[in-house]
Each structure stands twice: as structure tokens, then as C-alpha cells.
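#struct-pred

JT: dropping the chains for the assembly here, can someone run the whole complex?
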Amino acid sequence: MCGIAAYYSRNEENAAASVVTELYAQQHRGQESGGIAASNGREITVRKAMGYIKEGISGEDLKRLSGRLAIGHVRYPTRGTSDLAMTQPYVIETLSGPIYAIASNGDIVNYEEVAGELRVKGVHFSSKNDGELLGRFIVYYHEREGMEIADAIRLLMRRIKGAYSAVFIARDHLYIFRDGWGFRPLTIGQTADGDVAAASESCAMDLMRCENMREVEPGEVVVVTPSKTYFLSAEDGLIKPVFPIRRHCVFELIYFARPDSSQFGEYVYDVRHKIGARLAAYDEFDADVVVPVPDSANFIAMGYASAKGIPFNMGLIRNHYVGRTFIRPDQNSRDEGVRQKFNPLKDFFNNKRVVLVDDSIVRGTTIRKLVRMVKAVGAREVYLRIGSPPVTHSCYYGIDTPDKETLIANLMNVDEICAYIGADSLKYLTIDDLAKCVKQSDRFCYACFNGNYPLPRTAEQRGSAC
Amino acid sequence: MCGIAAYYSRNEENAAASVVTELYAQQHRGQESGGIAASNGREITVRKAMGYIKEGISGEDLKRLSGRLAIGHVRYPTRGTSDLAMTQPYVIETLSGPIYAIASNGDIVNYEEVAGELRVKGVHFSSKNDGELLGRFIVYYHEREGMEIADAIRLLMRRIKGAYSAVFIARDHLYIFRDGWGFRPLTIGQTADGDVAAASESCAMDLMRCENMREVEPGEVVVVTPSKTYFLSAEDGLIKPVFPIRRHCVFELIYFARPDSSQFGEYVYDVRHKIGARLAAYDEFDADVVVPVPDSANFIAMGYASAKGIPFNMGLIRNHYVGRTFIRPDQNSRDEGVRQKFNPLKDFFNNKRVVLVDDSIVRGTTIRKLVRMVKAVGAREVYLRIGSPPVTHSCYYGIDTPDKETLIANLMNVDEICAYIGADSLKYLTIDDLAKCVKQSDRFCYACFNGNYPLPRTAEQRGSAC
Amino acid sequence: MCGIAAYYSRNEENAAASVVTELYAQQHRGQESGGIAASNGREITVRKAMGYIKEGISGEDLKRLSGRLAIGHVRYPTRGTSDLAMTQPYVIETLSGPIYAIASNGDIVNYEEVAGELRVKGVHFSSKNDGELLGRFIVYYHEREGMEIADAIRLLMRRIKGAYSAVFIARDHLYIFRDGWGFRPLTIGQTADGDVAAASESCAMDLMRCENMREVEPGEVVVVTPSKTYFLSAEDGLIKPVFPIRRHCVFELIYFARPDSSQFGEYVYDVRHKIGARLAAYDEFDADVVVPVPDSANFIAMGYASAKGIPFNMGLIRNHYVGRTFIRPDQNSRDEGVRQKFNPLKDFFNNKRVVLVDDSIVRGTTIRKLVRMVKAVGAREVYLRIGSPPVTHSCYYGIDTPDKETLIANLMNVDEICAYIGADSLKYLTIDDLAKCVKQSDRFCYACFNGNYPLPRTAEQRGSAC
Amino acid sequence: MCGIAAYYSRNEENAAASVVTELYAQQHRGQESGGIAASNGREITVRKAMGYIKEGISGEDLKRLSGRLAIGHVRYPTRGTSDLAMTQPYVIETLSGPIYAIASNGDIVNYEEVAGELRVKGVHFSSKNDGELLGRFIVYYHEREGMEIADAIRLLMRRIKGAYSAVFIARDHLYIFRDGWGFRPLTIGQTADGDVAAASESCAMDLMRCENMREVEPGEVVVVTPSKTYFLSAEDGLIKPVFPIRRHCVFELIYFARPDSSQFGEYVYDVRHKIGARLAAYDEFDADVVVPVPDSANFIAMGYASAKGIPFNMGLIRNHYVGRTFIRPDQNSRDEGVRQKFNPLKDFFNNKRVVLVDDSIVRGTTIRKLVRMVKAVGAREVYLRIGSPPVTHSCYYGIDTPDKETLIANLMNVDEICAYIGADSLKYLTIDDLAKCVKQSDRFCYACFNGNYPLPRTAEQRGSAC
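RK: done, full complex below.
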């Protein structure tokens, strides 16, 4: 999943501090590690650290990360090992020095094909990370084939298939671009001082006090130079990207994005409210309370409760201090992880009929434990409502879903899932109703629900997603 | 504020793992640093680290922290420097080796008096931390005056005034005790296997699957030996503690404890619901939405909304990834910290009449920014409701309140505060109504609201609270 | 082997800096690790580090090691693991705080007996290190039995058998003492400013510009207080140490001490010169050159060459940068270590008759390689001369000799050793002639040559030598 | 000064272990820091560390430094800051990856000129280190101008003026080359297995068991490929280096090299013996003892003693454990450093007439203290003899001599120096006699003695020597 950020300051040499702030607002997109690369126009300085960005980047680091341009990245551990070598941004060094750096978010489906071609041309890769591929592609065509950088990015868009939202520094130029399908979000904005910011989520732009915020268009390249900012649309230029159709990730709206972000032209919280209302329309029963699995299902549950007129209440308390889970060997270790994250209120559920709302079901193991937990503290009935359709297919465009074989919706039908989970009833949102919760429903990717992949599925062709 | 934990395993040498789990559940009581001390009956091993307990204590550490008894502490930076030297547990070493360790929570008001007496007797202090005073007091009277440890603790209760909930290890014995006023919470429980656990908050005991949970009584000493557990009440023994009256901290219920904890015989969430309902009774107006300042005011706001029939909604999004705040020098630095923590939903507040609910007002700076923020995104009116009476006095028993001079309720009346904050109306809960939200209202301390201190105020006599 | 140092400054709070200098001069006695403990009169600060003392103790450390008294230690890895837990000085902490510290050099033969008695009395040991035993013995009898510290040291001398030269801090008092046999060296001196220094070797005192240097007498206790220095001889006081007879380690003079040190009333270089001259008297042949195995045999070889009138020359070059030996797997790994340490001059040995001089033979493996090496580069004949008698017995008093079974002089007679080593002739110094090289020959221990142990051999009773 | 090493193994992937051994043998050429770069033919791994090479490079490091080719460097802190950024080898990374690395020894006099030209062509330098200049020069002409690497090195020899002995890796090729003047030494050799080694000093080759050892010729390029080794002489190829004349550094023989090395066709120890004998011929007096300033003057003193028939003896003991010097503020700090390094034997110098031998005098401060020290311990007369002519000029080719203004031989005549130092007589070797100690005296540089610089003096044009 991961998140990216960029900042181009017009007057100050401390763009890195702004990027830290942007990444902090996007920490939910990746807590494993993070990094910043800053350019003073002549040379790039980089700093990466495991863990949270504010813990990893010190005031001393910020002083060293001097310069008007900076980019950054927070990483979520999907494929690839958990170490700094897999952490972006990547600096690409040539005889001209450390003048190029890239950070990206997504998942490339023809990694091996493109990397193989570049290897034949003498390009070396220090990792199998998607970000490094994007960066070396651009630098190769710029330095060795003499192409303008913006053209090299356009060529990249023709050649590299998959999801990628990216920010790229070359000396004192910042390039912001996004694949032609628009899988992952990417927002740009401008401050009153003329500074330019970009981030995966708009909530990061709020912290920068940006005005004129908008999404980077799929296939668009935004170029920020020391004197100006210009926009190359997918239609501009000689090398035109070829784009089948827009395919935004609907899961960003359901689960991944922060509720205060806007993505793909939608307010995230508002989509979730609508999902809740749609779900409420499925039910005619009476219940005592609507309880969300916090925090991702909060707005769906509030939407449900408000549509239905049943009281909303937070009967499950979430411990926000994430971290490694130590298992005490003398107990049922399977339940420990869930217990450490969620705890039910005492005497709250007693004899109540509870509408329990979650955003989605993947393997079903967590929600099963939660339903049991709620029943164990006295709930009379648990009606489970899910704010998305059954997840039946893996994602190849940047969401960390497991192999198809372990998706519970592939192994059982809804009744069986309900029985397995131990709920008294279970309802999912339909794809049609999900589509009705967004404005331009034909611009979204629903592949994880219906298998209609916008691009061929080539798991074995992929590198390490970012 | 801080939190403590203890565990005595009957069959396993890994009590430290359980203490980590208990501390993790209480991480909200202190994120600055934490530590664990484990005893194998002959020798105590200790490990302290800055930051979150799960990050600081590794699997390797846990292997070294072997033994059936362990105690732990999470620290909140109140007085004293932010370093490991101030982090508990304290191991007190004598010629008999590292066999004593202590962790405590509270604030001692006659620190200098007692420490001075011990210094005269040749006792050395490596810090001015309350926990070290408690520990060295016990060890002095045990080792040098030949007193039984339980008696030394009883003597401590006569001599040391203030708030302290503490856990103490001596070789293979665990002692759990609490000051006679019962200022700070302390819960004990037993597992099905006969293991004994103690923690500041009951939510930690849930993770341990404890049964028979109850509060340690004020003035009580619980002694856990390798073969049994026994309880010395305040009335037992020759050296009787002298206790004026019980004085539980009502602020634990309003703000500090986790909603899923029970304290002083109350469900925390339930007290907050009742507070919300009491507040609701003050108002007769119509409003569009009830919005809490998350997370501490969530249940108060839900209680208000439910009593009033106005929809509850989470219009302010909180970033849970705490950490150092970097200030970008080119912006209004005063607002940055609040902005980084809270962000309002867009188009949510448009033209709405908002009941904004918070748990308390101390200096007023944060709520002022939040009210402005909510108005800046379109709220028509903001009615601010506070789940506690005006805070007019500093706490000397373990809550980190600032000097009286900076408490806004000492500087202005309610109308002036309302104007300063920029709300359209402001109402506080009265002390009388607060008292009605708990069962035994005469057992609580309300000193921060009315200045009726159960013990003399002696700021200059205090050490470093824990 | 190891080395110790102490310093009591009359006017400055930086005794630790002087101790670093003293230890640096004694680095040859131990390179594995080192440490310093400094007392400001109220509290002791300690710092230990692996490797060389000047690398391990930084300027920052020295600032923290403030105070007028300091002691230090450099460690040679004999028995016991190679880590900081085995590194002295040991601080012994009691309720009175960290006010005691000790550093010692030697080997105690009844460790288990004495430690066992103290354990029964409730004393805890964190290691099996001799130094800790000495320290806890003193503190136990002082704190728990009410004995004056000097008396406790006198009792120690009656009870603890073996080799120990030691320096002990108690608050603002420094105690310097040595076992009654005088196995290991210990020198004290005074500067023009009245500062008092002590060290294993007198070369360290030269750096301190000490005057009035002399050995601490066996059984003597030197007490340095803030106002004066006084000397308790073995005959003073109520508790008189019982001393069989003086037994200085003759090996210190042959091999271990620096040539510029004085020990046991002898100039080390001078004893070695005499040894060389004695050896020369054994031979009547003509040879071309006298070559030492550097650096320990340099002065023996110079003594030989000068007595014989044969030119002295340094045909073997020693690499002084010690460190771990990496073995290249494609070569004869056995020879690598010796090769990395010694290299012969080219064309130097061609057709020459060489008197090769070494200080001693233990296992015989190194000298065998050196003889081969010298022959391989052209030496016609190699006459090996050894500045000590055959080593036939293990040392139990502080020299790291291997088990008796691996001492080559126990496995072969001199002719066989000569053949094994590949020399053309081999002569050892006789014990009688060795005795003639020192002034008071009956005050020395020759146990490693003749098995006449001054104390019973009790390998299994020993702790970890220091 | 510094030292370099290279190894190409024909059968094993552990060339780095051999380079560590070679560097260890050359540790006297630089103790500040060191590094190793190893190539597996596709990618270069690098590891640098402060301090001794054996301490800095662990067994774990060696595993990572896998590959058949490796180069290394030990650094002496001349110009430039003391940190790892100045430590070689330098890896030069391009889009082809980390496939180039270089280590060099010497001092380039037209650094700014050449670096400036490359900067204009877009080449970036991360340091002002000579080694980086050499490396980027080669890579630039190879990658951007399409030149063969050997040709790029030949071009380098035409363009870059000064002293440089260098080893360069490009993927699986090793290049070994040396400037046309032959200022600094560089030896190559081959093992019985066909492995190729190179090092600054031949003593390192002894450890590798090399046969067929010879110096790399000035202007020669040795190329080692996976299948063969070939030699490009200064006369080969299209791009011919232009060489004025050979100018070996005579100071390497006098002082810097290890006595067991061969350099410039001379045995180092033998040249020093001859120098001693030449000096002896100047004197007709009788003296009691010849004492060297150890270790650099040992062989000069032995040469003198043997020629003169006066006993040689090591009256000054040197502490080989170098390291930072802590100054005790209460003493004459100027003398501390010398005292910590050298200590005189007691009662050795009493009333003796001493010939004190040193290799050279630069500032005169150390020898002055040593003469005083020797007199203070009783020497009747001190005749100081110096194994080189007066040093009157700075070196620009790799020896760390100070500014001309601080060279004592520029400030005083010999009588004045003698008086300043406090010796009873002082004699220097003449340049003519020095020339007679080597075979091909016209091939040496004597600039530091006579100012005849083989290349223009351009201090301000230099980078940071290596």
C-alpha cells in the first residue's frame, strides 16, 4: 500500500520538514519504515529508518536533508523483506552524482519484462523494488539515450504496466506522475507562497494549507522547475501514453484511506456513510445497537445507524499502539493478537441484539474472534454487516490481499461464512450498491470482487511492490 | 500519570511476557519510556527503553528477563528529565545482590522529608524519583532495621503521604500495595491457572483472562509467595496505617483511563455516558450534530447524543501516530501541533449547528484552535460542552496539571472563556452533577475543581512523580 | 595476567585521566578490555569497554568519570568469557549507594571455599571473578559485621589464598594492598603535588612523574584518605595476616613486564641482560649473528650478543598491530598466525649461523615455525637459546599457562624438543643460573619450572582470574 | 602516506580475506581508517571502518565481501577530515551499478585542474580525495567517451601529475598502475595457484606467499582478467604516457617502509644498515652505547654500532599501543605525548656517553624532549646522529611533511639546532652519502632535502592526498 509525498519550496531550504509532516499524516499507509530524499539542486541527501517517520527522522537528520525539493515514502511490508534496502526513496547515482531520486506507490505487473530489457542494455538493479525500476528506466533513457526526462516518463507510461503514483527528483526539477489507469491516488496542491506539494492522500495537503488541490490526472506529468510549474497531459507530446480506461481502486475508499481525505473526486467519509446507508436498507429488523469494528468501519457504522435510527455505540475498544505481538505460550495463542488489539466493554452487550459492522472480510479469522468475543460478554444476537462485496480475487495493483486460495469468500458461500464466523446473520454490500456510492462508478476497479482485471494477471512477473 | 503491572506465574518462567502485554494495554498511561524487572527468585534482571514498550522490549530481552515474577512500568513525562535514569522499575542492589525491585504510580507530597531522614541513616538515592524512595524505604527497614517486608510497607504507609500504587519484588515474593487514600487505581486478579496479576487498569487484566478481579483496597498489602497469596488489610498487623478517608481520582474516570477499564467500582465508559447525558439535560436547543474531540470525549459525546436524540458523528479525525512535532518555520507554528493531531472533515460542517464535546479544559489553547478549525470549514454555530467542572486547581496526586496560574478557569469566568475560545456557547458539568455520575461520590477527590485537597499542598516537598 | 592502576589527586577532580595514562603504559598486560571507576567521595562512576583503554574511554567518558580518586584495570583473556561482565573494576552497590569499587590482578586458589562461606551469609555474586570476591569480602565484613575496612582487608589476607594485588575505593578512601606472598607486582609513588599513584608496573609511575616509588610490601595495606596517606604493615594491627614466605613471580622479569619497569627490586631489562650473559657462557662456538624473537627476547639477546661479542641484529620483524587472525582457507592455516606476526628479513640469513634467542618455550608451536622460517630464508645453522628453564608446570597464581599435558617440556626431553623444533642445538637457562640473575633469589616462585608450589594446587577451587 | 592492496583469486570467492591480511601487514602506513571493496564480477561490495583494519572488518563483513577480486586501503590522516567519507576504496556508481572501485596512494599536484575539467563535463565529486579523481577520470572516459579502460588509464597518466599508485576494479577486471615517476612503491606477485596480489610494500606479499615478485613499473598498467594477466608498459599502446624521469621517494627507505620490505630494488633494512655505517664513518670519538629512537631508527643504529664497534642497546622503550593522547591538565602538557610513547631505562644511561640515532628531524620537538629525557636519567653526553640530510622542503608527493616554515632546518643551522635540542653534538647524513646507500641514486627524489622538485610545486592545486 504505502504512501508518498513531495514538496517544492519556493523560498526555504527545508522542504524535507514539510515532507515529514505529509508523511506523518499518511502514516496509516505504512508503518514499517520510511525515508526522505532532499535535493539542494546539485546533490541529493537521503535518510531512511525503520518504524514511524517522526521517530526515525530526527532534527539532526532534517538539518542534513537541506534543500528546496524533497520527496518521501512510508512503507507497508507487503512482498519483500523488512529492511532498509527495500525502503524508498531510491537514489540513482551516476557519474553526475546523486542527482536523481524516486518514490512510488503501487504494483507493476510487467516488472520482469521491463527490468530484463534494461539489464540487457547494461542497467544494474540493486533490488527488485518497483520504485527502483521506475527510476532507472527514466535515468537510462535520459542519460544514455539522450531523452528529455518528461519524455522518458511518457515512454515509461507506454512500457510499464500496472499501478504507480510517483515523485521523481532530477537536480532542481520535481516530476509528479501517475499511471494511465489511475489505480492509486495522488493529489497535488499549491500553497499561498507558491510552494508545490504532492501526496497520496489529500489529508496530507490539509496540513500544508494547500489551495487549488486536485488529483494528478492518470497519464499526466507535472513538472516543477525553480521558476514555474507546468502540466503535461496524457494527450500532450510526441510519446503518447496509451491508456485503456481509468480504474481507480475502490478499496481505498472502503478501507485504506483516511476518512478526512478526498480521493478520485470523492470524500472518503461520505462514501462510507453512503455504504452504511445502503447496508441499512437491506435490513428490516429491530436491533439495540450498531457497533463498528474500529476504526475503519466507524463511518460505515455511523451511516448505518443514522439511516436506521438505531443507536451507534463503540462497544469495542481498539488499542492504537500497534507493535509486535508477543504470544504468551500458556494461552490460546491464536486469540492473543486480536485480544491485544480489541477489547469489548463489560456489561455493555448484555442481552443486546447487536449490528456489528466491518469494512470487509478477507480470511475471516479476525471477525470470527470478534463475534465470539462479543457473544462471550453477553450479546444476545450478532448481525454482521460488511461494507463491501465478498473479496474473491487477489489484487495486483497495490493492495496487500493474500492468495486467492485463502480468501474465505472463495471457500464458502455466505451462509457457510456466517456459520463459520458464528454470527446470527451476515450481509455483504453488493457490487451494484457499492457502485451507487460513488459518482463515476465506471471509472473504478472492482477486480478483487469480480475478477475483471483491467490488466492481465501476472503474479510471477512482479517485482516488490511499493 | 504512568501505569504499572505485575505478574506471578505459577508454572512458567516467563512472567515478563505477561507484563509486556499488560503494559501494552496501558500504553495510553505513558508513552515516553518503559521497563520490566523479572525475578527468577534469586536475582532480578531489568530492561528499560525509551518509547513504546513493544518496540523497546525485544524477544531477546524477554529471554533474558526470565523468571516467574515480573513487574513493569510505563512512564509519562511529568516532572523530571526524559531519560532512562528516571524510568522505572528501580532495582535496589545490596550485598545480597539485585533481589529487590519496585514500580509505582502516583505522587508523594512529603518526599523531601522522608528522603532526608533516610539519607541521614546512610541511604543513598540515585534519583529523586518517588519509586526509588518507596523501594529504598522498604529495603532500609528490612535489611538494616530487621523488619519484615510487609511491616516495612505498613510503616511506609504511615510515613509517606501522597498517592502511590506500587508493586515490589523481594527475591521470590511479590508485594502489591496502595496508599490509604486510594488516589490512583490498582487492580488484582487471578487466572484459571492460579497466576496472579496486577495492573493500574482492569483492561490489562482482560488480556490476562483474569477472573476474580477486584481493586486492591487502600492501605491493603497483597503478598504473593511461591505457594500462596494472602491479603493484609489496613486493619491487620501491629503497624497500622492511618488513613483519613478514601479519595479516588475522579479525573481517571473522566479522561485518563481507557473506556473499557473498571476503576473504583465504576465502568469508565458508563460514567462517561452518564456525564454526557447530564450535560444533555442542560440544553434545550436543537442542533444538527454532536461531534466529540476524539478519543477521550467519544463516550461523553455518545451519551449526550443518545440522550438528546441528535446524531453523533466523528467530524474531527485524529492522527493516532503520536510523536515529536516538527514545526515548519514558514507557517503559523502555534497551530501546527493541533493541525497535525486533528483534521476536520470537508463539507461536513457546512452550515451545521454543532455540539462539540470535550472532556475538560485546562489551558484552553487546543480547544480554541479546534473551534476555529471547525468554524473555518463551515460550521454555522459551535456549542461547546465540557464533561467536567472548570479545572481551577493543580493536582498533587499524580495528574500532570500545570501551575494554577495557567489554568484558564482561574483567569476568566465562563462567559469570558467562551468568548476567548470563540464558541457560540459553553457549558461545563457541575461538581454536583459529576458526583451523581458515580456510585459513592464521597469517596472521590475533586480537588482540581474545588481545591479541597485531602492532603496539605506541598509542591516544594515533592520528588519526581511516577 | 592483567594490570591495575589507582590515582588519588590532591587538587583536581580528574583522577580518571591519570588512571587512563597509567593503564595505557600497562596495555601490554591486557588488551582485551579495560575499565575505570572514579569516586567523587560520595558516588562512584564506572566505565568499561572492550579493546584498548584509549580507544574505549572517550573524552566524554572522562568528564563523567569525575572525582579525586580513581582505579582501573586492563584485562587479558585467561579463564572466563570475553565480555564486559568479566571486566573490572567491580562496583559493589549497597543501600549506601555505589560507594565501593575494586580492581585486582592475580589468581585466587581457594575461591570456591571463601565464596561459598559468603554465599551462606547472604552475599550475592554477579560473576565468578576474583576481583568481585575480594570486594564483596571487604564490604560484607565492613557493612554487615561492622569491621573497619582496613581490618576487613587484613582478615581477607588471612582467609583468601593466592595471588592478588588490589586497589579498593570506599567513598573518599583509597586502599592499596597485596597478598602476603607478593606474587604479582604492585608499585606506589607520590608526585611533587602529593598525589598518590599505584600501578602493577613502575613504568606507569614514570608517566605520572612519581617520586619515592617503592613496591607495596606483601601483606601491607596502604590507606589514602583526603588528608593523609598511612601504611599498615603485615605486622600492624590486631588481625595479622599469616604469611609463609615471599614468592615473587620470576616470569614477570623474564617475559611479562615491560623492560623499563622495576619489579621486586630488580630492573627488568637488567635481569634480562644478565640472563643473556648467563646463556652466552654456555656456548663456545662461533656464530654470525644473534637474533631475538622480538620484542620479549630483545634484551636477553642483547645480553647474549654483548657477552659473546657476536653482532646483535633484528632479523625477524614483528607486526605490532595485534588483532584477530583471519585464516585464508587455501593455505596452511597453522602457519598463518605466526607469519602474520613475524616476518624474516630477505637475504639477511643467507648461509649464516644464527643464535636465535627466545624467552621461553611453552607449547613449542610458535618457535618451531620461526626456526623453519629462518631456515627457509637461508640460515645455515640455527642455535636456539632460551632465557628460562623448561616450563614443566602450570601456574596457579596469575600467569596464563596451559594444562601441564600440553607443555612440551613434559612430553619430550631437550634433545627431542630440539629435533621437533628443527634447531641445530637448543639450550635452556638452568634454574640455578636464573636464580643468580636476581638479587634475593629465595624470594621468588619457580613453580612453573620445578613444581614447588608455595600454595596447594587447587585448580578446581579457582574462580575467574583477573 | 597510506597503503593499498589488491588480490585476484583464481579459485576462491574470498579475495577480501587476503586483502585484509595484506593491509594488516601494512598497518604502519595508516592506522586512522581502512576499507575493502570486493567484486563478484557483477557487483561490488564495500566496507570501511575507523581504526585498525582487523578491528574494523569482522568475520561477518568478510562473508558479505564475497568475490574473487578485492582491493583495500589503510589511511593515514594527512590533509582532510578524519572520517569515513575520506576513506578509500571509492566505489563509483553508474546506471550499470556498483561495478567500479579504486584505491590509491600518493598526492596529485594538478587536482583542481583535472577535477575542474571533469566537472564541466558533468562529472560529480563527492569528496576532494585524489582517489575519487582517479576513479571518476577513468569511468568518465570509459563510459561517456567510449574508451577502453586501459586506454583511459593511459590518458590519465598523461593528464594527471603527481604521485599515485593505484588499484582499480571494473566488474571482473583488476587494473594495477602507477604514475610515470614512480614516486610511491607498488609491488605485484603471483602465488603458486596463479592468484595475483599487489600491495604498496613487499612485506605484504610475503604473507601471501607470492613468487615472482616485482615492482610495477612507473607508467605500467597491469591488467588481470578472469583468464589471464597482461602487462602494458609505458611504451605500449596509442596513448603513451609522457614521463620525465623516475623519481622514487627516498624517504620510504629511510623511514616509512617496514624494514622487511623491498622497495625500488632495495632491501629497506639493508639501506638503513648502510646509512648507519656511513654515519659511523663521520665520527672518531669513543662512546659507550648506541641507542636508537625506536622503531624507525633501529636498523640505522645497528648499522652504526656494528661499523663502529660500540655496543647497541635499546635504552628507550616505545609503547606500541598508539591512540589518542589525553593530557592531564596539571602537568606540562607538551611533554606528555612524548612521555607516553617513549620511556628511558633507569640506571642505564648513568654517566654514559650515548650515540642517539634517529632517522630524521622535522620540527625538532620530539627529539628535543628525548635528548632531555636521556640526560635527565643520567647520560653524560648525547651525540645525536640523523640518518638523513636536513629536511628543508615540504613534500608534495605523498609524505606528510609540514609547511616549510615549521621545518627546523629552515629556521636554524646545524649548530643552532644542536643547541636548541640540547645535544652535545649533532650530525646529519649528507645527500651525497645518502645517494651512495642506494644502487641507482639518480632514480630517486631528494626534493625534501634539496628542493629539486621533479614536478612544479602547486600546493593550492591539490586535493586530499591518499
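JT: nice. The longest strand of chain A covers residues 97-108. Residues 3-243 of chain A form a domain with the Glutamine Phosphoribosylpyrophosphate, subunit 1, domain 1 fold (CATH 3.60.20.10).
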